[in-house]
Amino acid sequence: MELTNQLILFGAGLLLISIIASVVSDRLGAPLLLIFLSIGMLLGEDGLFGIAFDDVQAAHLIGSVALAVILFDGGLRTQLSTFRVALKPALALATVGVAVTAGLTAAAAYWLFDLNWTQALLIGAIVSSTDAAAVFSLLHSRGLELKQRVAATLEIESGSNDPMAILLTILLVELLIQQPDSLALAATVEFVQQMGLGAVFGIAGGILLAATINRINLTPGLYPLLALGGALAIFGGTAVLGGSGFLAAYLAGLVLGNRKLQASQNIRRFHDGFAWLAQITMFVVLGLLVTPSELLPIAIPALLTAAALTLVARPLAVLLCLAPFRFPWREQAFISWVGLRGAVPIILGLFPLLAGIEGAELFFNVAFFVVLISLIIQGWTIAPAARWLGLEVPPDSAAAQRQEIDVPQQTDYEIVVYRLTENSPARLKPIGTLALPDSAQVAALFRGGVALSEPQRQILQAQDHIYLVVLPEDIPGLDRLFVAPLGPSYLEEQRFFGEFTLSGQTRLIDLATAYGVSVPQGAQPEETLNDYLLWVFNGRAVVGDRVRIDNLQFTIREMRDSEITSVGMRIR
Amino acid sequence: MDIEQLISPERVRCLSGLEDKEQVLQHVGELISIADPQLTGTEICDRLMARERLGSTGLGHGVALPHARLEGIERAAGALVRLDHGIDFQAFDKTPVDLLFVLVVPEHFTDEHLQILAALAEMFSDPELCERLRRTESDRELHAALSEWRPASDAT
Q1: Is A500 found in the same domain as A437?
Q2: CA A20 to chain centre
Q3: Which of A73, A337, B2, B154 to pair with A415, CA 20 to 30 A apart?
Q4: Chain A contacts of B59, Cβ < 8 Å?
């Protein structure tokens, strides 16, 4: 009894401290995951509380469940439309990239530690995958808004490269325990099985889960749990049958997040919170598991391994994998730098321990050290690096004053709510005279907590809440009506895109006539800006991509599907 | 850029009763052709409209900067128009436009054209100036408000 209560108090305290620490981390600019990991280490053997936690099996269980939840949530948030620009590069990084990174890092580990090649390769494999939890949380933190091609490549890569690293690790662990007859054959079979089953069960499971959620009527609170249960069942089922559960969980999330779904906002919000809980738990437990004093003896070689990984292995792998896709060098540099390592290497570091390999602690400790370095150095520098390389696009500043609500039926429409402020452009205007986007309809108007009748006839005031039904693509139009263009952000947007906005269908020859600029080399005068920009960016153009024609700078401002609809023009 | 060299009092107008883009640009075309009669108002309007078809020259916040290069005129000319109510200008932010500065330059003015445009865009991004221009009640006041404008500071 007493112990139960103490454990509850302890667990809750830990959770509260971790959550409050996130505020501090925001102020310091420190990566949040590092804070969670540090809290775990502080509580552990060499820390303040001296908790001796060394249950590898339990840590592995917690870590796996948490990762499945995080990957599922990552999939839920990934827009399928980003696949247009990022799928192939991300898949190249997730397969060939992982193998190259593992190989090159192994070469460094071979020289730095007293290991044979198989052992060195195991170290390489363990640290070879980027971490979804770390990438998702760092890319979305601190109002960082990256060019879609870069963000989507990193996200899809981190969501889909774990299976490859897990596969390599399992193979090498098996190799160290016993000598299989035909390694190449075993590897190929294992790879095909892991990836194939993971993909099939993930997609099929996702479709089935979405259909189930849409078919049955439940208390609203149960839908997110149904999604969670489904996700974990897909993860577990796939893994039991010999596929990659992590890939399956990510794909199931992706399918679910991109279908019409009952209670989808509800599910998203729940999973957002639950993914946080998973991250906190996982990193605190992994921090508890490590014995920091054991890290000291390996500090120097592990540091050099981390350096080799970050400065040599990752950049070479990125260079090689992205070569066919002609990414601008700045984007390649950023993707190279943001090869964030997180929980996956630490969890993979547990595999040799679970298998009972001699000297397995070394693998775990090296993995832990590499992750720690990666979180500190890369985690801390990701935002400045993006700024320095010019990969940010102006953020959606309106999101803070807009709220989205579930529509009970399965439809493309969403309900959005705006709270009007003193400087909202629509204030003091009669609702009937607002230039609403075509799909938008005013559903209700609340003033002082009271719903007003006939909202069409009302004049908007500050503090009003206006509810509108709208198609998602028209939300930016509503933002412009209801949300005050904060001076700096408007100016920033104007500086970024330029003063004038041209249609993507503008012909180059018309541009030349209007401004006396030349038609760029290699382009046809009859081509439109859309054709030309798509050609320049190899079909993978994204918002924020820029070209210069003489003294004019053109920046892609809006895209619909894979067409460029509007282009900002700046005179310089 | 010296704004005084572009405008003259008869091309700074508070207008009312104009319903759409074409009507406004036609009116402005005529204002400009009074000073530079080589081209008719309709010809000027056509060139301005041709530029609009590439994308609205609306800057957002109810301001627009229609512009064109014209064959047959000698010097750059500008016109400032304030409308009594906003008209649809297909601007990026969909806000109706009630403040327009129209710029026409001779065909050979390639670099100058861009320089003047950039300066005008900068000038009309100043919300205080736009507010002051909107508060004026006569052509004379409008002209005075425009002439008084100085860049807020060199730092920006």
Answers
A1: no
A2: 23
A3: A73
A4: 494, 499-500
